[in-house]
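Q: What does the assembly look like in three dimensions?
Context provided by user:
Components: two
Sequences:
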Amino acid sequence: MPTQRYAIAEKLNVPIAVVGESGDVRWNNEAFEATFGDDAKHWLKEAARAVAGERGWLHGFFLDADEHRSTDVEIEGRTYRIDRIGNPSDFEDAAVALSFEDVTRQREMEQAKSDFTSMIVHDLRGPLSGIQGTLEFVLSQEGTRLDAMYTDLLQEAQRESERMMNLINELLDFSKIQSGNFTVEGEPVRVAGVLKRAVRSLQSVAARDEIFLLNAHGRDVPQIIGSVEKLTQAIINLISNSLKFTPKRGLISVGAQIVRTGELPEAIVITVTDTGMGIKAQELLQVWEKYKQSGNKSLRGGGGTGLGLYIVKQIVEAHGGEVSVASIEGVGTSMVLKLPVKRAA
Amino acid sequence: MSSAPLAQPKPDWSRLVSDSLKQNGLWHTWYKLVEARTAYPDDLSLRGYSEIVRNAIVRDLLQHPKGMQAVPKLSPEFLTNFDRFNLNAQEGYLVSLIDGRLDLQKLVLLSPFDQFMTLFILAKLAQERAITVP
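A: Here is the predicted structure of the complete assembly.
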């Protein structure tokens, strides 16, 4: 590392150290010394140790040298966010420069906020389910002769309650992701069944908005290991999103293609594609981020939480997959999910 | 000493597809994307752009004033000059279902292929003038 960088790092109030692969401190600034002192030797050694084949967190900083890496680590009862600020290639022998920020209070606040959101959202779902059930019951009574105006109003109330339930569910999932309680079950998933179920559940909404919603996959899509519930939710999120931005007489297709290595299926690529208004090129990279909403106005009214696509990305990544997006303004958008086909050992 | 292969730069699909659509239309762009898929089999966004173009092709078929109730018919050219059309097995099967009475909705139900694939093949047959959708 160039000498002037050491001089700058020395003066900073943030603890910084240059650490070798075995946890040895090659250099540190005063802030590091003041914060950790001799104790650093102990926990850095632990961080470098391999237990039952699993190497400690320090090892990660020596991998993927070209990518920025950051991780939260518990050090003596406090939570530190550790960032790699110098790569192994910056040093003559294998070492990384790390900065340490105490984020204990910040993480506690985030956890409290997440717990609170989770509790509120649970409490909101109960009464809303009651309202939805009542509306469904009233509207399904064939013998009842409701004035057309009242029927329209009740249907509007039903639509808005559906929208509110979606928003609440998104908030609940988001709070689970934030609190680290978002886990994926390891059950066999029939992907074709998941796609069909998702399409079926939104077919009536699409028909109401005069949009063609079509399956674009055969029955021979292989099974994967994961969560039926969460993958169905991911596909529903994507279709719902497309429904917001696709004009009347537009088309949404839900497809699946198999990626093979030789004869064996290696992955499944799921696409949800619409003939909507498309996304501006400069917004494409941000669509999977939380609270990011398209600059385009929904054609069906009402905004969202900006969490739908973020939740989809989390679900796909929890299955070991990856996401992508393609869009052409005025032609349409395709959300692409790649899920690995894992086989039982 | 062998050097590590350089990573192939990823084309700007958004611009390329958008330009091609403007200059050459949907079908030409679709065939170009099929070729590109062979060169970039692992490119996820390329799959997305292919799907956008396929979707636009099927949407155009469904823009017919009768929508799914439109009734396709075999074209006079197909009936008199069958050999000119080099149909594959899927296209041949769907052509065999077209009797001038079944609408798109019923053809989708009768077809062994998925809904979207059925409509895409019908759009291709219409583009090649094997069928007409009056």
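Follow-up: Chain B touches chain A at residues 13-15, 17-18, 21, 41, 44-49, 51-56, 58-59, 62-63, 67-68, 113-117, 119 (CB under 8 Å).
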